C-alpha cells in the first residue's frame, strides 16, 4: 500500500529540495514494518482497515464473477491476511495504532467503530469464501466470531440516547463512517437505521455534503504536521 521508504516527513523534505526518494519496484511486501512517521509513531504500514478491505473486496469480486480459479489461488493468502488482523484483537475487538486508518490525521483511539464494522464484514466475507472452497468448519468459525463481534458492537458502541454508534473509546460523538457501514452490512435494527439516517439528515441541513464527523476534534488529537497546516 506504500511504494516509498523512510519516514513521511523526511520524504516531504527531500521532495521540497528536489531529491526524490525512489519508489519500490515490487508490491508484495510492506516497505517499512516500523514507524512511517517519526513524530507520531504511527504504524501506517500495517493499517488494519485497508487490510480488512482485502477480504471484503475479494469476496465481492468472487461473488460477482464466480472466478473460482482466483479463489483457489488466493484463499490461503486471504486466510493469512485475516490471521494478521486477528492478532490485533484484544477482548474481542480490533485494536489499532494511532493515525492508522483512513482518518490518518487524527488519533481517534485504539478501538474505533469503523474498524470493528469492517472486521465484522470481513468475517462474514471469509465465512462465505470458506464455504465456497468446502471448508465448512472454518466457515462456521468465522460466522461465530462475527456473531460475537456484533454483540460486542451493540453493547459497547450503541448510544441509546443519541441514537447512533459512538466513534471510539475516546470519542462519544457521531461519525458517519462506522454508522453507515453498520447499516450497509446489516448490523442495525430498523429503529437504529432510522435514527442513524435521521442524524445524517440533520447534518445535511447544515452542509451540502455529509461531513466526516459532527464535531471538531481537539487540537491534541491531530497529527502534528497537519495541525500546523490547519493553523
Structure overview:
The protein has helices at residues 8-16, 48-65, 68-86, 113-132, 136-157, 176-184, 190-204, 224-230; strands spanning 89-90, 93-94, 158-159, 164-165. The protein is mainly alpha-helical and 231 residues long. It has a two-stranded antiparallel ribbon. Helix 6 (176-184) packs antiparallel against helix 7. The longest helix has 22 residues, at 136-157. It starts with 7 loop residues before the first helix and ends with a helix. 28% of the residues are buried.
What is the secondary structure topology, with strand pairs?
Layout: H1 8-16, H2 48-65, H3 68-86, E1 89-90, E2 93-94, H4 113-132, H5 136-157, E3 158-159, E4 164-165, H6 176-184, H7 190-204, H8 224-230
Antiparallel strand pairs: 1-2, 3-4
Helix pairs in contact: 2-3, 2-4, 3-4, 4-5, 4-6, 6-7
